[in-house]
Amino acid sequence: MRNILLIVSSSVGQGNTERLADAFATGATEAGHALTKVFMDGKRLEDCRGCGFCQMDGHKCVIQDSMQDIYELFAECDTLVFASPLYFGSVNGKMKNIIDRLYAVSGKDKYPHKDAGLLMTADDEGEHVFDQARSYFDYLVKSLGWTNLGFYGAGGCHGGAGTRSISEEHLMESYRRGRMLE
């Protein structure tokens, strides 16, 4: 059984990204895994200052914001799944801040081992729309020494405020990926 931390960086509650993440969560919990979902909208999250304080004081970040809760959940999980909308070819800024702030858990640029996956949504359905995001994620998990559980990009997700639309095919694939975790 896995202990999964699912971080959703979308700013739209019950939007396409959160719905994709929820489908994954349903599959994973049905498969018997423990899962904690953190929806970052409305959470206070500052940028990493690059001060290095965390490397001198027991891996404690000097910034006191919502990331403190993430650090505790990160320490307890063995599997980390990120869910982000695609913004200009990559994860959104909030997700990038979360990733940057994970520096606090490293020691001499070594990170606790995690299995990690990335779920993404985009309006565009182009063949290469997720290439840069997938490349970034592959680089991230490799450089941190984590195990790559894979990437899933759901293109063709449409809608404005209150009218979000994601296909059942994408939701079922995300559910299946959660359900198939070993």
Write a structural description:
With 182 residues, this protein is an alpha/beta fold. The chain contains five helices and six strands, in the order βαβαββαβαβα. Strands 1, 2, 3, 4, 5 and 6 form a six-stranded mixed sheet that branches. α1 (16-30) links the parallel β1 (3-8) and β2. α1 runs parallel beside α5 (168-179). The longest helix is centred in the first third of the chain and has 15 residues, at 16-30. The radius of gyration is 16 Å and the shape is globular. The N and C termini lie close together (8 Å). 36% of the residues are buried.
Give the SSE map.
Blueprint: E1 3-8, H1 16-30, E2 34-39, H2 67-76, E3 79-87, E4 90-91, H3 93-101, E5 115-121, H4 131-144, E6 147-154, H5 168-179
Parallel strand pairs: 1-2, 1-3, 3-5, 5-6
Antiparallel strand pairs: 3-4
